[in-house]
Predict the structure.
Amino acid sequence: MKAPRTDRGRLLLALALAAAVTAFTATVPLLRDWFDLRVYYGTVDNWVHHGGRIYDYRVPGTTYGFTYPPFAAVAMRPMALFPLRVVIVVALLLNLAALAVIVRLLAGRSWRRHGWFGCALGACLLALFEPLRDTFSFGQVNLLLMALVLTDGWLLATGRGRRAGVGIGLAAAVKLTPALFIALLLLAGRRRAAAVATSVAVGVTALAALVAPDASRFYWTEAMWDTTRVGRLDYVSNQSLQGILARLGEPDRAWWAATVLLVLAVWAVRARRATAAGDWPAAIALTGLTACLISPITWVHHLVWLLPAFAVLVRAGHPRVAGALYAVLCTSVVWLWFDDASGVDGFLGGNTYTWITLGLLLWLPAGQLLGGRPTLALRTKATTPAPSPAAPAIAPVRGQPDPSSGTGAAAAGAASGPGRGLTRSASSEPTGSTCPAASKPQSSSSRASSYTAKPPPA
């Protein structure tokens, strides 16, 4: 099918696609009703206005509460100044802004080549991406953290490494998994950036300890080590290595520790090779993939960290591979095994997103850039001073496509559909429960969550 040649035809096609995507996202996928945002809001509101403790709060009618480090609650404290509806609107706008930054950093200025029509198609494709849909529907913070990390990556890729580290440090203080990017800085020999990131993370964590000492003490001594507070490990939304083992009925943590060490070894070799060649886009993509694999719980919405890997695939000349994998992540296919992930089909199909993440870690093109201009999106102006020898600019190998293809382009040609097995009624529950599953835990009458019923000690 050829694209319309006239502006009128393009406009009609873009409007038709936008209407179809809107109808699909409003009716077919599971709707989360801003559940995680309600957790954040209820926590800070109870803390500020009712003298409650951060980790004691539970969403009314559920057993689910706050699971992030104390600094996250401190950063979200301004929510208590506004009604929930205003907070929802602000969260939506912040996520849209963060997504715009992410696409800009991953795509660079190549989007201008495609004009408004290409941007409209890219927006439709992004709206179909299940991790992205869930991030918006839950009111999650994934995109904000990714924007912080990618901004540091851009600074490193464009010879501005002396300014890097703040974004990664803040992201690591809000959630623990982005701390792996500090390890990436150390692996790449960027000690200054690693020191900045560590100092920022420790500094804001210490600030949170001053503001909420009891909550900080409880989190770092108890809650952090209790994975049951986050959710059920065997829940199908947990697309991590631990999720696979849990669905296999393997409770021994030694197996999980062994697989984590193996994955970290692969990541260290590949990321080191990428940074040695100045290929920061690939290094960051590999680190995001690894963080998803080794985390005890990686809900589907955490897989927005696959977007940089799709951009790298397109840059390396594999748009069809990127499109095919992207299309799978638009289908919500893992939910076909929501009720029963046993057997060979459950092992293969119920862990589809984990297999894609693992495959990208092993085979993502990396370390192919050997000097020239930067590849992490924004190109510097002609008047920009030459980068220092410690952080050389980088260019693609001759014959490679422009690295600044966007994530929307990464999904070009990807067929997406409503995804089988999603004819259930819309639901507003999150991702897993530590309590025994009800007969229909995905229904609106019985919410499952990524949080726990275990209250903190008095």
Q: What stands out?
A: The longest helix spans residues 84-107. Residues 370-375, 377-458 have pLDDT under 50 and may be disordered. The CA atoms of residues 188 and 276 lie 7 Å apart.
